[in-house]
Amino acid sequence: MDKKEKLDRYAGILVKCGKKVLLCKRSSHHKTLKGVWSIPAGSIEVGEKPREAAIREFYEETNILIDNGDDLTLIGVINRYARDNKYIKGAMYVYMVETDEEIIPDLVNAKDGDEHTDCGYFTINELPFDDHKDQLFKLILKNF
User: I need a labelling partner for 87 at 20 to 30 A (CA). Which of 63, 105, 109, 140 fits?
Assistant: First the structure.
């Protein structure tokens, strides 16, 4: 990687409720991961800590405020590689929050709710991943 190139940094939150996790399907008009089931996540802004970015992005995309960041646990960092797989071009900090009741995203009223077309809770056997080598898939399995 050229020293002038900066590492893209992202942060997101995985919600775990009992034996299910919350995933949202990226809209087809989004510039990355079109139509892919993932966690609400986005770019870390200049001067922002990954935990702060995860909370902000989760709110912007779901209209749900995680008001106590202390409940978040960093469960992993996923590297994003360049197309040629020769270098890491980005990293996503994945936090997890556990809840007793399913919290349902409000995509209609969320500032960036149009980034997703659907959200749902999935058991380990229902996870909608085509590629089981996917790093997020592996991270979810590790934390079930």
Answer: 140
* Calpha distance 125→68 (Å, rounded): 30
Phi and psi at residue 140, to the nearest 5°: -65, -45
Q: What is the pLDDT of residues 110-130, one digit of tens each?
A: 999 899 999 999 999 999 987
Return the closest-CA partner of residue 139 out of 101, 95, 82: 95
Beta-bridge partner residues of 77: 93
CA distance 20 to 33: 22
Element (H, E) at 85: none
* Res 105: pLDDT: 97
pLDDT in tens, 1-34: 444 456 789 999 999 999 999 999 999 886 777 8
The neighbour count for residue 21, using CB atoms within 10 Å, is 21
72 HSE (CA, 13 A, CB side): 22
